[in-house]
Amino acid sequence: MSEMIAALSVIFISAGVLLLVANHLSLPTIPFYIIAGFVAGAFVPQEGVLDLAQWGIAFLVFVFGVGVDLPKLSTVFRDSEFTASAQLIVLAPLGYGVGVLFGFDPLNALYFAIAATLSSTLVGTGLLEVEIRNNLVHGRLAKSIHLLDDFVAIALVLVLSASAFTADAVAAKIGYGVLVVLLALIIQRHFFEYLTRYAEGSQELLMIGAISLLIGFLTLSELVGISPVIGAFAAGLAIRRDYTRNLGMLNGIGSIKDFFVVIFFVTLGALVSVPSPRVFAVAAALVVLTAVCKPLITIAALLYEGYDVRTATLTSVSLDQISEFALIIAIQALLIGRIAPDLFDALILAAAFTMVTSSLTRRYDEAVFERVTGPLLGDRQTRKIDEQSSVGGAPTDHVVIVGYGRVGRRLAATCESAGVDYVVIENDPAMIAQLREGADRFVVGDAMYEYVWTKANVGEARIVVSTVDQRRVTDRVLDLDVAAEIVVRSADSDEAAELRAAGASFVIVPDVLASERLEAIVADLLDGSVEADALKTRHLTELDRLEEHGLDSQTPDERPI
């Protein structure tokens, strides 16, 4: 216990000092956490670091389980199952072959292939937090690919943790794992509601209940002989994600997650050792497969699915790192003596390196698109744009609407009611069915491409409206050399003033409009100018109208560009 306390002390002192440096220089924190771990590794024995790493990752897997929204999984998986499958089908055999070339036995070559194939949810989705929250297409794609990778990884953890690779031993591990997950789903569906009621709104009690579930499932996984990672994942599935009743508990779990994120990255750095030439060569091969080959495969697969080059590029750069699940598999293999020490050292070195470089490639992903993939592949998208779009004859004196989310659909309906022609620009192929059903004219392509605007005949448009509050798209709209009135969307009033100065005719700030609407409702109730029952009736009528026209659904296209 004293060794564990000493290890934590060294880790957090090192991390705290370097985090101050990172914040002062406005640099990504992940590289500094890993550097802090490398420094701490000189003072902390490897056994203590391995224990910290296992339990740190186990808790992060618990948080991952809490974040899994089972009813929405089928929708998410449809976005990227082909891309994730392409990675597995192409990269796993390639990684296995490279492992064999390095002289590893079949099992170690398999560990090598796993490390090369799977991506880190912790790093990848963490770097795309804003894009995922705003439901941008590349954020949604990256999240779904990471989810598929993680489910494959959980299955591998079960199989590779078997004491012997016999049919009975592997079947027993899988059977116990399935039973533990089923128990979690039963608790989530039938019993977690009782915990919520018993807590009577106390988020502290709910938090204690959630941690108790985690401890219970970790204990159960140890009793049946499966990895604690499976127990942690099952405990996360047992938690009901009810934001109206359990928000405080969910926020508490998120706060604790931040603590274990530090533990994870610092312990990863502490496991890095000075490499021998062979370790360096193996790590370099892993880096090439992970940071170069994997993104290229991702781009090719997404282009084949019909996505544009920019979306494919921005998605691919969030997958260029080694998964934390690969580290769990490697650590467990090291503890039971199955993985070659030089492969373990190479895997740790490559993981630390790719998690550092991933934060850098994410920062410059637009530059990668503009200078590399865009010039090389951009022209090849015109065929897809022509095939998927429906504009008819060149419209004139029309409205160009960027984005077919809720706002875009309402604008299209308004144009139809007024008898005004319009063209929707949308870059999500998943929206094609809705566009064909609900839009008169549309162009499926990225608003960053000039050809898309030519296709929409923007030079003859009366109004151009962007329903997206992504700044790069907004700037692209403002750069158009057209006589049309430009209407854009912004997240705050300060940015709105900048956009007006940059040439926007109007800037819509949804939060301001919503607050004004709310203020008007409260004012009506206070001064008695509108009866409460009349106000309720008017509100219900509005909701019914929205539902009738399909304008209230929470679909994955809210922020489609």
* Helix count, DSSP H or I runs of 4 or more residues: 25
Going across the major beta sheet, what is the strand order? Answer: 3-2-1-4-5-6
User: Which sheet architecture does the biggest sheet show?
Assistant: 6 strands, parallel
Question: CATH first level of the largest domain: which class?
Answer: Mainly Alpha
Task: Give the termini distance in whole angstroms.
Answer: 51 Å
Helix content: over 70%
| Overall pLDDT score | 80
In short:
It is built from 25 helices and 6 strands.
Considering the chains and any ligands shown, give keywords for the structure:
561 residues; Rossmann fold; Na+/H+ antiporter like fold; 25 helices; mainly alpha; single chain; six-stranded parallel β-sheet; 2 domains
Describe this protein's structure.
- The chain is built from 25 helices and six strands.
- A six-stranded parallel sheet has the order 3-2-1-4-5-6, sandwiched between helices.
- Helices cover 71% and strands 4% of the residues.
- It starts with a helix and ends in a 13-residue tail after the last helix.
- Helix 3 crosses helix 15.
- It is mainly alpha-helical.
- The protein has two domains: 2-378, Na+/H+ antiporter like fold (Up-down Bundle); 389-548, NAD(P)-binding Rossmann-like Domain (Rossmann fold), CATH 3.40.50.720.
